Amino acid sequence: MDRLKVQDNKDLERDTKSNAIVNTNTSALEKARKRQADAQRQRDKLREVTREVNEIKCEMHDIKCMLSKLLERWYELQ
Fold it and tell me: CA distances (Å), 31 to each of 10, 11, 24, in order?
């Protein structure tokens, strides 16, 4: 693959066959991939915490219902 350096930018080269501009800065590519992976991990963590909060809400609802039933029975016995 033949490439020519792009004037005024050391990270860019032009492919002579396809005339495409190619970025040769591999460290920038790795940084972008790391940012993307970090963002995905953050989204996954947020999704997990949201799921846990929803589970706790359901459990609290169940506890409230049980307490209400217990109170109703207690009042009936009074």
Answer: 18, 15, 13
